Structures are given as structure tokens and as C-alpha cells.
Amino acid sequence: MKIFRIEVTKHSDAGDHGIAAAAHRLGISSLRTCRKAQIYFLNFPTAELPTTDQIKRLCDFLLVDPVTESAQVISQPRPCPNDDQLQHADAPNEHVIEVALRPGVTDVAARVLERGAAELGIHDLEAATAAQFRLKGDLSPTDLHRLARDLLCNDTIERYSLGSIEPIFDHSSEARDHVEQVSLTGLSDEELLACSRERLLSLDTEEMKEIQSFYDEIGRAPTDVELETLAQTWSEHCVHKTFKSNIAFTLRSASGQALSVDEIQGLLRTYIQAATEKVNRPWVRSAFVDDAGIIEFDEQFDLAFKVETHNHPSALEPFGGANTGIGGVVRDIIAVSARPVACTDVLCFGPQDLIPQELPAGILHPARVKEGVVAGIGDYGNKLGLPTVNGAVIYDEGYLGNPLVFCGAVGLLPKGSHPTEPRQGDRIVVLGGRTGRDGIHGATFSSAELTQDTHSESGSAVQIGDPITEKGLIELVEAARDQRLYNAVTDCGAGGLSSAVGEMGEKLGADVELQDVPLKYPGLTPWEIWLSEAQERMVLAVPSGNLPRLQELADLWDVEIRDLGHFSGDGWLRVRYGGRAVAELPMSFLHDGLPIPSRTALYEEQAPDLSSLQTVLARPRPELQEKELLVRMLSHPTVASKERIVRTYDHEVRGGTIVRPFVGPHMDGPADAAVLKPLGTWGHERAFSLSTGINPLLGKRDCYAMAVSAVDEAFRNAVSVGADPDRIALLDNFCWGNPTFPDRLGALVRACQGCYDAAVTYNAPYISGKDSLFNEFEGQPIPGTLLISAIGIVPDMRRACTSHLKQPGNCIFLLGETREELGGSLLGQLLGWNGGDPPSLPEEPLRRYRAVHAAMQAGMIQSCHDLSEGGLAVALSEMCLGGRLGASVDISPVMGDAYSHPHVPLFSETNGRLLLEVAPSDRAALEEILSDQPVSFIGEVTDSGQLALTRNRQPIFNISIEEIVSAWKGADAE
Amino acid sequence: MNLPILILHATGANRDAEAARACELAGATPHIVHINQLRAGIRRFSDFGMLVLPGGFSYGDALGAGVRQALDLNVFFQEELTEFIETGKPVLGICNGFQSLVKSGHLPGAADDTVRRSEGRHALRRRDVTLTHNVRERFECRWVHLAVEQGTRANCLAQIGEPVFCPVAHGEGNFQVADNEVLEQLEGEGLVAFRYVDSNGERAGGRYPLNPNGSVADIAGICNRAGNVVGLMPHPEDHVDPIQNPLADGKGLGLSLFRAMIASAAGH
């Protein structure tokens, strides 16, 4: 065996890459430069060795850019030298760290290299890749190990070496057919729970007992395949048992008095689905039944929308976690036979400036998490050719150990084109990526809390995606759908084939042969094949007569497909390995055997902070002045520009982005929502909007208020860009702590109650949702976080509105009443004051939004912007900076003289408010349309270059556009 | 005019449908054809009057942008594609398509192509230009202005009057040359097709973000010596309707580029 090692370096590598700066942040100041090289290993286990000329051609065609790079080919790998040996006299203080993927982790570059080499006539090549970092500086071995572990290598998916790394090729292990019988007979409760823990099943005692008695009845022990199948099917992640459980809920006042005691028969049914049923919108095509919610778009097409979370994987391996998060939600869209057309993402991170010494053991620094997550989202969405158009980024110390990554996707499907009933005898066909040992236990792992040991225990749950394989799935399923080749489709997500086949065959039963599953490498035991969550796979139910046609399409689109078995019709799940049954379970036990849990929940209202705002502001401190507070708000990481992140996402691909994330003449002002025109529908003017509402800061104060405010925010953002308020559908995503604690569950109940009340008030249905529970690190829960995503129909994209000011001389109106609602506000956070009432539901918001929409349809509104964190002052500033125009605004109509300090009208966060810019010629008509609404004329657009705020014509403060821009854009300001 | 246009879909291409829409709006008939159909001989280059290599991430760009697609062009389609180009039919490479044309040596192409042809199948052209990582080392999506270079050999582009305004969306769009001589040669021979400019048409002069990726001499696109093969990083296919324009000023439609190239196909 001979291995070639090819090192490719760039001629002009200045040795920067931001690594020295990052090292300094870690406290390693002696690192001066870091240069990178790419390493390829070529192994020829069976074939004849290639000629020197062949290796050169491989380099020339595939590995080396002749203009910018050069290569060094080493035909005998040097024995791995230690760092001392690397200290050459001619290169003192030069050190080498090399990083490679662990065996089993998808190495796309290596696979592409193998196929490319075959095109050049070099066959039977095994490839592997690594990255080399050449570090200069006076660095101790301890420094080098820290740099490797904390900066250059993620132990979950990678390994490193000081000096040359030894390649590991994937194809090295033997097939294993071992199936274990796991006897549960006679085990005590404690022993059952220990068994669950040991095998990472995440099943509780009641569930283990149910399984024990089932197998005692049929008189045999479960196989490991069966136990794993049950654990996955019954996991919180797959079956959402908390949302289905019976809950005894007590609401208590701050003084400890019980205000109400309720029995809730399932949160999902009682609050979420109930709201959808109550509002009963005829344009809802599918809610809570399929992998994504579906609404009507036009006469020909429907729209599908789904938002998922990928929190735990992203905590361990930010790039891979977020990467596969996008991959997963896009497959949910493919699984309703839709063509994906857009992505969204909402991210919650810990503070970016956390000093490394304060980082708890077992977690990655929030800056590293953010960098990886953002790169992972961009990599997958960009490569799929999907515009990532809407989202939010929230920073809070509560997300330090457990960041949140919400990934959303939208798809377009012809009406009536999504078949959902597999038939008896249909073949079970798996499409796409091969199965490997990656992603084992993802479903059960995401149903448990994170601890500092999770990295080492559950590393196998985390994967790297391969978007190009997924792109093939998009094309193949769309083509197969159009030719009506399948009767049902689902994706392999959590639980892998077990979940996909188990769900699809719930009514019919299924019989599958695991030896037919295409594997990345041998060595997987049957349960691993069955449970693997390897990415980029779908399952179709295909009438056998359609298989040849499906194969033709698969060949065209370069997608591997394999027939695994059939839907039997006898109601049993039979999994075989080489013909031998390794699992035999009635579908009825698998799907209905799970005992419905009962839980207790308690919510205690917070004692209000009795210190009044007046007292807090009475202290004569400069940082309490209105202008200083505004600047602090604009530069607050949650409010400030996200341009550095968003520009790394392609938001233009597919050519349908009508309102994009940044607006205005400098294309840098914040948009309220995205408006998209799907390719293939340009025959009419209809488009759709995507918007979000999220405010965990408010949730820390009052979860009910957080829920109603999130709904209003998502809704008003949609209305701001031109969506019809009677055609807006909602998605709910809850990220919460461990729901077996009554306080966590009580807060969740309150949030669900808010969701119900708000949806009914806005007459807006929930069409899909997801909950991610157990978001805790070492016993500390994240702040309960509800994301509301809205998809709305924009009847006329040419009337779509943006938020930046357009024309000096235009009038500015504030629509909606302002109340003193500063509880859980940004102002409260900056002042360290926890008083005030939280925002509530506005009065008759739907009528208000309908009136605005009518004015927009009539072409009266020049710009429109919603008021959220930081209230009126922040919203006005954003309109000014987007348009690079000034405004002169008198706030006396807002709350009169009710408050001596203008802080309340400036910064209150009352829901249901919009700022409108109107040409003077349209002013009378607008006032007519809004005649029964609380609306005030507050000022006009100017070319003064200043936002000038007055009250009763007395100046409060002036701030220049440059100051606003520099506060909001920070280092990005030009 | 009903020019049949081949939109080549290599695995991982993703702006093919937009390119097809642009071709259609410009009056031609686009056909999106998978590279496997061409390999299988089900469709042929010679059936078409123009070729578009669209944007995307062919084969994931795992070994560098456009590298694997370039290999396909050289290994499977060397003769067909060379013949297509030599008959003077227009070829447009956008973003990943541009990267593939550069990395397969079709852009700017050798000064004396007969020398190369004698080397036969699988020969690699000597390359002295490339598209490499953006100087900011990250993917970026933003709208840019680009102007047609005065005196470019792609003289069909001369009819595009005002700067084209359209987005870039790439991580490896930084156009670089082996040395100054190469740059002088490109400029001297009229092989530069587009440069990044400001909204008034003034050269970006390397200023970010007008020049979004650090390309030498603000070069956004080049052509071959015959002027019929044009490649550029920005996406004119994403600005074919004024409603797509974020400045809403009605200017700089990318459609004009498709119109110009399609018009030039009429003679062949």
C-alpha cells in the first residue's frame, strides 16, 4: 500500500484568516501568523499505482490552481513527527497543526475527488482530506493543544495532530450482523431506567414498563432493533408527548394565591389546533397533518411552510448542526411534494464578547457557535440555490450553553399534486445519500438535556451535510411527482428509516430488508442501519410498475435509489437482515402503545418591581438621557444591523426577491419582512411575505405577553410589506427547558394560552409548528422562547411597501395607541429596571390592519415600518437611516403630557403600531380610510440630515443620520 | 427569432431556471439540459444556437469553484464544445459557469488554439487567469454595477448603453492573473468584457463594496479572442423585470445582456 500526500498552498497567503486575532481572544498572544494548506491523501489499496504523470494530471485538473497555488507531492508519508522535530533551524518557532474529519463523517471533497479521478482514468482510489495550519510564534505545546481544541478543530467531528496527521480511509471495517436480545423480564423500575439510560433511549420508567409488559405478554425478549425503534418512535422529538400530555395547571398570583386550576387535555389540541379550527380559514389546505403546513397561493399553486429547530446539534458542532438543520427542513418541504423556494433562519446566541475564562466547561464559545452556525446555514442554502430571506438574531446570556437555531423553508406545489396514501404492495424505495454510522440517536439525544459530557457521549448524533445530494432529491422528487410515480413520500429525519418507514406504514404494515440499504461503508449493525439519521435521504411508496421509470429519472439526476421492501397490509413492521427477522412489531403497539403522560404545571406571576420609572430616571446620569439611550438601543446586538451575517446568504437566487432584507438607496436599511415571487408564477402580480415575531426578553417577564406580542409582531411585519391581513397563516416553534419541571411547563402553558388568544383575535390559523424541549445546560434552562413565523399573501407585489423614508415633505403618521407598556422592554433592560406592564393584545388589531392594507392597495403608503424593540424612537431612526433622510417629529400627540419624561412615549413597546409615510396629496384620503382608528400625524420627512424630536414643539434631542448609521451598523458603517 | 438555447445543468447548478426565464424574455427558446443527457448523446451541443452555463455550485464546488465541471467540459465535451465555440455561436458563462469556462481554459482561451488542438483529447490548456476566493474570505450577496468595457472583443455587448445593475452571490469571484503581463495582454487585446463601476459608470478602483471581491483591475467579466464566449461573475438573469431592482429606479436591466448575445447569434 502506498499513500500519496499532496499539500496545496496558496502563493499569496498573508497568514491572516482572523486566526491570530481569535487566538489573542483566547489569551494566546504569541501567535503571529497562521498560514493554511489543503492536504489530500490518495490511497490505492488494490489497483496498480498511478504514474507520476497521472498524479500530475490529477493535480493540474482537480487539486491545484496554477495561478494562485502550488503543490508538493510526497509519495511516502513521513512518520508522524512530534512538535520538537518540526522545529527546524531554518524555521524557528514554526509549528504545524493538522486537522482531519473523524472516520464516518461525510467528506464531500474526498468523494468528489474519487469520482473526478475516475474521469481521468485513475480508478479504485481512496481519498481523504485534511487541513494544515502553519503557525508562527513562540508557542508552547499547551498553547498548541489549546489552539487546536478551541479554535481549529472540533473534537465532535474532527481529530488533530501536532505535525503530520495520519489519514484514515473509510472503507476499512467488516460487515456485522450482530443482533442483541435484551431481556427486560423481572427488571425493577430502577433497573429499567438504568437500561434506558445506558442505551441512550431517553425513555422514562412508565414507558420502559409498558415495553416490559408487552414483551412479557408475547413471551420473548425485545431485540436491540425493536428497543431502538420504540425509543425513537416514542421520543419527545418524534411524538411530542409533552404537547399531547394531560396537564394539571395552576396559575398563582405573585402573592401566592391560586388564581385558577385547570385540567388541560393536551396543549396542542387545546390551544394550537383549537385556534386553527376556530378561525376556520378556507384557504388552509393542510394544517398539522403533513410534514409542513400548506395554504393556497393562487388558482394553480399552493405554498408549504415549515420551521424546525436544530439546537443540540448546533451546540456541539455549529457548522454541521445548522447545515443539517437547513437540510432537514428543506426535506420536510420535499416531503409534501413541493419544490423548495426559500429559507428563513432565526438564531439565538450567547453574548459574543464573553471572556474565554468565563466559559463553562463543555461548551463552545458563543462567537465560535455563531460563526459556525452562520457558515453552516449559508453553505447549505446557497448550494441548494434557495434564497435565505428572513430571520432574526437574538443575543442573551441565557443561550450560552444551549444556542437556538430555527431553520425554515417554503415550497411551491401544484394544487392536488401531493399523494399521501401508500397502497398495499407498494415498494418502499429509499432515495439519495448512503447510510452511515452518522447521526445515530439524534431523536433521543435531542430529547435529553445537554451536559458538559454530551460532546463525548453523543458526538455521533452530529453530521455534516451534503447539499448537492439534497439538490438531486429536490429535482428527482419533483420530476417523479409530475409523472405521478409515487403514492406517498416522506423524509428520513430523526429516527432515519425507522421513523420514515414506521410512519408511512402505520396503517398497512411494512416488510423491509436492511441488507439492501446502500451503505457508505461496511460495519454497521442492523439497528444502526435502521436508526441512522444519515442526511439527504427520502422514502417513496412506489407501485412496482413505476420503478423502471423512477430509475430512469434517478439516473438522469445522479441520485441513488434502492428498493427495500413493500407495504405488506398485515399491520406488522417486519425488519429483516439477510432474510432473518430482526424486528417484528405490530404497528398498533409502536404507534399507540405509548402511555399518555400526566404532568403538573405551575405558573407564578412575577411580583412587579415597584420602583417607578420616574424614580429610576430621576437620577441625573448622562446614560439615562433619551439620546444616549437611543444610541445604546441602536447598537444593542439584538437591534443592530445583521448585515455581516445576512450578506453571506444568497437572498437573490431564483430571481423572485421583491422586498429583500436590506432596503433604501444604500441597500442597508432594515426590512420588516421579505416579499417573494415564486419562479413560474410571473403571469400574475400575487406574491407572498415571510415575517417573524420573537421576543425572549419579554418572555422572561411574562410568557403570555411574549406569545401575543410575537403573533402581533409577525403579523404587523407582514402587513407592513403589503400582505393581506385576511390571508396570513402562522407557525409556532417553542424552544423550552425540561417540561417535567412544573415551572418550565407552567410557563409553556401560559405561552400556549397567549398563542390561542392572539390567533383568534387576528383570525389567523396555525398551520404547522414544532416544539424543542429539554433545552437546558447543566440544569439551567434557556429563557422560554417562542418563535412565530408568518406567511402571508401579497395580492399585488407592485404595491409592496418598504420601511425607508422616501421623500422630504411627506407626512409621518403613527397608527395605533401607545400605552405605558415597558415591562420586559429593551428600555427596562438598559436601565436594569424590571417594572412596568408588559405589552398586551391591541384592541381590534385586525380592523386596523385591514384599513392599512386598503390604503396600501390604493397606493397611498410610501413607506411603512413596525414598532418593536425600542419603540417609536428606534423605528423612526431605522426609517431615517434606510432612506438617508431626516424627519422632524413632535411626539405630543402620542401620549399627551401624561408622563413628565418623554421616555415612555419614545420607548414604550405597545403592540399593534405602525409608522406610515404619506405624500401630502394623499393625507386627506388616508385620514378618511383610518378615520375610526387611533392615528396621529406626528411629523414630516426632511432633508435636514437629522432626526429632530420635539414635544409640544420643545426639543427633546436631535440626532444626525450619520450618528444613527454608525450606532446601528457599528464597524460595518462606511 | 426563435433561437434554441442550451442551458447546461451540471449536478449542483441552481440558477438555470432564472437563466431560462431571461432567455425567454429576450425572445429565445431555452432548453435546460442535464449534463448526463449530453453525455448519453440524447441531446447534442450542435442542436442549439447558443450555450448558457448557469450559476450554482456544480458538484458542490468541493475542489474549488467550477473545477469539477471544468473537468467534465475537458474530458467529455472537449471536441463538441470547441467546435461549438469555433463556429462562432455565443456562449455565456455566469458565475459558476464563468468559473468553469475559466478553469477549463475556454476563457480567455489560448492565443493560438491550433497548438492546443494538436495535443489532443484531455489536454489541459495553460491557464494564466483564475477566479479565486474573495479577499474578504467569505461568500457575499449584494447588488453591483458593471459596465461593458469600451473596445471589448465581445462587440455584441456594445449595444448595452448604461451600466448593468444586478447581484453578485459568490465566494470565489476574485478575478486574478498570473502577472502584470497577462493583465496588459487581456486589456490590450480587448479581452476584458465587464468591470465593476459605481452607479455613474466610474471604475470602482478596487473600492469595496463597489468591487465586491477584490478582482484585479475591477474585472467582472472577460471574453475570448473571437468575442463569442463571454463570462461574468454577477447575475444579469436576476434583473429582468424592473420590480426586481432594489433601487426602483428603472435602470440597468440585466436582460439587455441576454438580448445582445441572442441578437449576435442571428448570424450563425
From TrEMBL, chain B:
EC number(s) from the headed UniProt entry: 6.3.5.3, 3.5.1.2
PROSITE patterns: GATASE_TYPE_1
InterPro entries registered for this protein in UniProt: Class_I_gatase-like, PRibForGlyAmidine_synth_PurQ
UniProt pathway: Purine metabolism; IMP biosynthesis via de novo pathway; 5-amino-1-(5-phospho-D-ribosyl)imidazole from N(2)-formyl-N(1)-(5-phospho-D-ribosyl)glycinamide: step 1/2
Catalytic residues, chain numbering: 95 (nucleophile), 235, 237
GO terms assigned for molecular function: ATP binding; glutaminase activity; phosphoribosylformylglycinamidine synthase activity
One family name in Pfam for this protein: GATase_5
Taxonomic superkingdom: Bacteria
Gene Ontology CC annotations of this record: cytoplasm
Reaction catalysed by this enzyme: L-glutamine + H2O = L-glutamate + NH4(+); N(2)-formyl-N(1)-(5-phospho-beta-D-ribosyl)glycinamide + L-glutamine + ATP + H2O = 2-formamido-N(1)-(5-O-phospho-beta-D-ribosyl)acetamidine + L-glutamate + ADP + phosphate + H(+)
Predominant location: cytoplasm
GO biological process entries: 'de novo' IMP biosynthetic process
Coiled-coil annotated spans: none
Subcellular location field: Cytoplasm
Keywords: ATP-binding, Cytoplasm, Glutamine amidotransferase, Hydrolase, Ligase, Nucleotide-binding, Purine biosynthesis
Assembly: Part of the FGAM synthase complex composed of 1 PurL, 1 PurQ and 2 PurS subunits.
Cited function: Part of the phosphoribosylformylglycinamidine synthase complex involved in the purines biosynthetic pathway. Catalyzes the ATP-dependent conversion of formylglycinamide ribonucleotide (FGAR) and glutamine to yield formylglycinamidine ribonucleotide (FGAM) and glutamate. The FGAM synthase complex is composed of three subunits. PurQ produces an ammonia molecule by converting glutamine to glutamate. PurL transfers the ammonia molecule to FGAR to form FGAM in an ATP-dependent manner.
NCBIfam families, alphabetized: FGAM_synth_I
The protein's name: Phosphoribosylformylglycinamidine synthase subunit PurQ
Organism: Caldilineaceae bacterium SB0664_bin_27
